[in-house]
Structures are given as structure tokens and as C-alpha cells.
Amino acid sequence: MSELLTPIQIAATETTPSVEWLPRQGRLTIRGCSIPENADRFYLPLYDRLAEYGGHAAQRTLVHVHLEYFNSSSAKYLLELFKLLEDLHATGRTKVAIEWLHEPDDLDMEEAGRDFKALLEVPVKLVAL
To answer: What is the spatial distance between Cα 3 and Cα 82, in angstroms, rounded to a whole number?
Structure first.
């Protein structure tokens, strides 16, 4: 199996979220807390794999993000991931949709989702759990 289509499973730690990337199904899930000391070290490998995904993209790509908290460096890399997927969406190779999940009483995470939605051209759906 091509490494491009090999799933990625990263367990959550106290400072990094869990990541599940299933390229054949076109599904990316990021869940937990994202406050890594070196956000580039955590997010760049995922970014690289998503960049390579474009040539082998599933018909639809669904991104679920359910973060309890994230820092500014994580926000930068999340936006870069979303922009990469937005570019892929614009090519027509896959239809990208992002679901930003948050607890109903977590106004900070809801607002963060609204901020990302305002910055992106791909559909972003805010989902209160």
C-alpha cells in the first residue's frame, strides 16, 4: 500500500490532540488539547501527508475538529491545514467539509470555529454537542 494512503493514528497526550487520518475514506479527526511546545514538529508531518493526498483524494473529505483548547501556534497550523484542504477543494478533486465540534457552553471554542469559518471558503459547520 502506498504510504500516501496509509492511515495515521496518533494518540493524544497532555499537550497534543489525537489524530486519525483515513485517506481512503477521506476522513480526518483531530480531538483533544493542542498546546505542543513545538507545533511545527507535530503538525508538519500531517500537513505533508495532506499535501500529497491531492493526487489520490477521496471523492469527499470530511474533517472533524473537536478541541478543548489550543494555543496560537496550533491555530496557525490548523489554519494552514484548512487552507491546504481549501485549495484541494477548489481544484474539484474532492469536496471538503469541516465540522467544528464544541461543547454547548464552550463559547471560546464556538467563537474559534466562527473565526475559522470566516477565513475559509470551504463549508465549515459548527456543531454543539
So the answer is: 22
Burial of 112 (0-12, 13-18, 19+ CB in 10 A): buried
Domain boundaries, the chain: 3-128
Residue 2, phi-psi category: left (phi > 0), alpha (psi -120 to 50), beta (remainder): beta
Which range among 1-5, 17-21, 24-28 shows the weakest confidence by mean pLDDT? 1-5
In sign, the C-alpha dihedral spanning 29, 108, 79, 42 is negative
Q: Judge whether 77 and 40 are in contact, CB under 8 Å.
A: yes
For the whole model, what pTM was predicted?
0.94
Q: Are 50 and 16 in contact (CB under 8 A)?
A: no
**Which distant-in-sequence residues (6+ apart) come within 8 Å of 19 by Cβ?**
8, 9, 10, 28, 29, 30, 46
How sure is the predictor about 4, in pLDDT bands with cuts at 50, 70 and 90? Answer: low
- CATH 3.30.200: does it fit domain 3-128? no
